[in-house]
Each structure stands twice: as structure tokens, then as C-alpha cells.
Amino acid sequence: MILVTGGTGLLGSHLLFDLVSTGHPVRAIKRKTSNIEMVRKVFSYYSDKADEFFGKIEWVEADIMDFVAISEVLEGIDIVYHAGAVVSFYPKDHEAMLKVNIEGTANLVNLCIDRNITKFCYVSSVAVLGRALNDGVSDETTWWQPSKKNSVYGQSKYGAEREVWRGIEEGLNAYIVNPSVILGPGFWGGGNSGLFSLVWKGLKYYTRGINGFVDVRDISKAMIRLMESDISRERFILSAENCSYQQLFEYMAKYLGKPAPSINVPNSMTGIAWRVEALRSFLMRTLPEVTKEMATTTTMVYTYSNEKIRKAIGFEFTPLEQSIREISEIFLRDHK
Ligand SMILES: NC(=O)c1ccc[n+]([C@@H]2O[C@H](COP(=O)([O-])OP(=O)(O)OC[C@H]3O[C@@H](n4cnc5c(N)ncnc54)[C@H](OP(=O)(O)O)[C@@H]3O)[C@@H](O)[C@H]2O)c1
């Protein structure tokens, strides 16, 4: 039996679909506050048998911080996909994010070693690759460098990935995937899927940054292919293409039938933008729409090599423009 953490999120819901629709028995954890109906919604994008597939998931309530609950959840499990994490660029989440992502992963790693789990997949991030000293293309050998440019999210994922490497040294049969910015449908209210909503609402501004982007369906498929292979003790960057935010927004605008953002925000202005927004959100007691970390990330140039996964299992990524066209089609169906 397979265990999936993070099954109610963007990546986890796609992974659950790929697993249950191909007949794998799956247990997934959720929390009291989780919205599992989003998982059913995601399934409906890809199949007429969404309800039937959704009904095949064995849902168990557990928080990865709860050692005892996770220990019980692991009963009868031989394969674990660990995609659960706090993903946030809001300062209010920093403390919880560091705790959940590092300690929660340590809990799972320790219990999986104890239970002799057959194979473990950890979803890390390109945010753990050293960025400070690297002006070129990052690959799997680009190691973490302490730097003010690292986000707190990056720090939390780095701490978590270290727990997995420690587990591997202690006998855990594991591999790690490091996705770049994941694009996918369904969670239009926030995160990266929220970028489609911003362009739909008429986003006017873009920054000069470049980043790696990848289709959520490719991440899920690569994770399963690696699980079914003999590969372990390795990490793999999963990133389809390096692309500027300007080009990304142009693709989104093209397929959503909206004008592309046309006003470039110079890097010096983003510093002013997040400070003004911080003050506004403080006064209004709402979440800021732009934080310092968001502003920094979208002005930086980060590029990634996907050569290792392509060579290891012959994996081919969906071209970015095709992903954005297909996600936009789902967005338009959801906003009829
Ligand atoms: N999105 C990206 O661009 C990106 C890029 C690289 C790597 N990643 C990594 O990919 C993974 C999935 O990301 P995503 O975009 O799918 O994130 P997401 O949509 O925010 O989903 C996060 C998932 O983690 C679960 N979770 C959070 N705290 C938990 C806790 N204490 N106990 C149990 N479950 C908990 C959430 O459950 P609830 O529903 O209960 O909140 C949710 O299912 C994460 O590990 C993330 O770091 C994401």
C-alpha cells in the first residue's frame, strides 16, 4: 500500500489521480482543516470517472507533526510519497513553515527507517540549490550556500532535505525530486495557479526575472517512474524550461484571451512596492499581495538543468507553452 502526504495540495492531488487511476491502493493523510473536495475537482479535469477514482482513496486524519498519528498511518504501508509541506512567502508563516517542513519530515524519515519502508520519495525544491555563488545554470551538484538571497521557504526545504539525506545514510531507500515552479490547474485562489487569476484579472506589470517552470502532471509522472525504477540515493531537478516572467505572462495572456502585462517594474521599484504593500496590509489587517520574498524572487535570474532526469529515465517534459495552453483551457472552463 502507498502513502501520500500533501494529497490535498496541487501536486499531491495530481499524484493521487495518477496512482488511483492506474489501480494502485493508496492511503492519503488529511487534516481537520483540509479541503478534500479540491482533490475530487482536480480528478474531474482528467476523467469522467472522477468520483469512482476519488472513492478509492483511503483518507486518514493525521498531521505530520503528530508522531503517534503518523506511526499509525504507516501501518501496512510499503511506499511513501512525501509531498506535504507548508509552502508560503508570508512572514506570518515562517516559524510554522520551518517547524513543519523540517520536523515533520524528520518524523516521517525516522518512522520509515523504523518500519523498513521499501522506498521513499521526498519532494524537495530547487529552492535548496545554492544560489548565492552560482551565476550559471544550477544542477543537482549545486549545493546550498548560506545567503540573504535564500527565502525562509528555501531554508525550510533545505533543512528537510538534509533530514532525508541523513535518513539515506541510516538505511532509508529514498530518492529526492527538486521541482522548479510548479504550474497546474485548480487552486486558482493562490500559489502559482493564482498567477492565471492575476493575468485573467488584467495584470499590467511584469518583472525582469527568469525562473524554471514545470507542469504538475510531469512532476507526478516523473516521481512514479523513479519509484518504479531501481534508482535511489539520488536527487533530480524537475524543470521543463527556464523562462522569463514576461514570457510566462505573455503565454498566459494569449491563452486566456487577455492583454499581456506591458509595464516593466524595474528592480529598484519592487523594493518600494513590497514596503508600501506591507504598510497597507498592516493598516488594513489583510495579507500583503506582494511580500519582500515574492518581490526578490521575481526579479532574480535562476536557471536549471534538467539533463540528469532526462538521461536517467529518458523523461521528456511537456513544453511550457503547451502546459500553459492546457491549464488555461481548464481555467476558462472553471470560469464560464
Ligand atoms: N508549488 C511549487 O511551485 C513547488 C515547487 C517546488 C517544490 N514544491 C514542493 O512540492 C510539494 C507540494 O507543493 P504544492 O504546491 O502541492 O503545495 P500545496 O498545494 O500548498 O499543498 C501542501 C500540502 O501539504 C499539506 N500539509 C501542510 N502542512 C501539513 C502538516 N502539518 N501535516 C500534514 N500535511 C500538511 C497540505 O495539507 P492541508 O490541505 O491540510 O493544508 C497540502 O496537502 C511541497 O513539498 C513543496 O515544498 C512546490
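^ NAP complex. The longest strand covers residues 174-179. Residues 8 and 36 are 6 Å apart (CA to CA).
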